[in-house]
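Q: Hi! First time asking for a complex rather than a single chain. Here are the components, and I think there are two in total. Is that enough to go on?
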Amino acid sequence: MATLTQTPTFTPDSRSLQGSLLIRRIGKAILWITPVFSYLFLWAPILLLILFSFNAGRGTFAWRGFTTQWYSNIFSGTLGAEARFSTELMLNALSNSLIVGVTSTLIATVIGTMVAISMTRGKFPGKRILDGLLFLPVVIPEITQGVSLAIFFRVIFEFIESITGARILPGVGTIIIGHVVFNVAFVAIIVRARMSNMNPRLEEAAGDLGATPWQTFYRVTLPLIMPGVIAGALLAFTLSLDDFVVTFFNKGVGSDTLPIFVYGMLKTSVTPEVNALSTLMLIFSTVLVGFSLFLQNRKD
Amino acid sequence: MHTRLTDSTERRAHGFLLALPAIFWLGIFFLLPLLIVLGVSFLSRGSGGIPAVLPFTLQNYTYVLDTYNEVIVRSVWIALITTLICLLVGYPLAFFIRTRERDWVKQFALFLVILPFWTNFLVRTYSWRTILGPEGIINSALLDIGLLTEPLPMLNNQFAVIIGMVYAYIPFMTLPIYATVSKFDFRFLEAAHDLGANDWSAFWRVILPMTLPGVIAGCILVFIPSVGTFVISDLLGGPQDQMIGNWINTLYQGSGAHLPRGAALSIIMMLLLMFALLIYVFFGEKEGKR
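A: Yes, that's all I need. Here is the structure of the assembled complex.
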């Protein structure tokens, strides 16, 4: 009993009470100010970009009135007032981006889903090593992946040329190979997350009811993990469309993708057409991301 | 008994076969290139189109460590500052999102953090030039008010690079922290208060330890790409602010190309990051055993 009355917790002296009230106020203020500041910080560049894509002034940050001229310039083939923007080059870059995006997404989704199933359901030696191997492309800096793949291609192509005399050049194919590397890792992560929420008994039940492993996969497992597979594919496609670093090191002449094209525009001088183009890309990825999040959060 | 046994061995074989395409792809186009870089880093520069020739040498490493020690130290320093700022911003942000009462507000707050992360990285980084530049939004506003007589130098320096990196990597910090915070049971906080803890000690002794795995994961996810930054320093930094990544690029292509030295610099950067990852694994294991 004596020990209970002696505990000072319920009778803090006024100084420590004031102190803790101050801390609570500061804490509450931080909890409100930081998010407001963070959201402003995250969105200011994007909102400005959208705003300036409608700005009539070229090459200046001041507002000169509303225009949609830059949007029409993108598609009209106009080279722009300073002849920097070429619709032909942009369309070429766009088509390269789509070829790379679609191909690498398809390959990565198939082999990424396969490895995800194998990691959740299979038991084999070296699974932990494979786990690490799948994790590595996600955590390694892009520049390391990009440069090492580029050096690999240089060495291999040199070797092939010295034997057969045939000269292979980097291009869309080498970009696709590089994109599949990081996309496989991301697809595998998302599909695995989906599979870990799935009841393995359903597959066992299918087997008990006489389904072959293929039938079980096609009619039970695949439909159940499909939202994860689609979300993974959408993520892969978006990552591929946005990738700059791996593409930069593994592209060849004429195989520029959209980000490489945009980089070229930015390096020479920012043109309002790039702002307009980016706004369109933003709308496109917003739709993709929204769709992907919707699929990931959907309850079965 | 017998059927079960064959069943499980069959499954084992299936499991491995399913993993084979990914193993091949990552083995040939990811691991092998890294090993080739390791090999090239010990070779000498070739002439003409040949990237590297024998004999083996350690000179690339001594040269790179000698010439680029400042760059390496600066890159790690900038990455650490970026990580710290991201933590200071991302941690309260994650709590803010977690403590929203309505579910759709929570989802929307999360969506607002994720979405910028999916828009074209180059352009939104470049967009900072219109904010930070001498004729940018901040400077022209401050000049108009009369607070400044000369524009503040906020572009093409270390400040701009750090702003750009914090901007790019905040989601990497916020999302893992949010993942642990969203599982945090606020009854622990009540219990701490009931047991006499004030806010200060409740934070340090209850909230922080319980959300530490997310904090560590976030720090690693920010630190690693920060050290390897290439585009941000290229677009927002001056010549003095170029990071390891920019020098790897310089050594890889252009007039100053020296592939073996570039390879050595890549390997040094990877060793630095492996060290960071080891810390993560070490802490992760400890957390897991608790």
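A: Chain A is about 75% helix and 0% strand. Let me know if you'd like any chain examined more closely.
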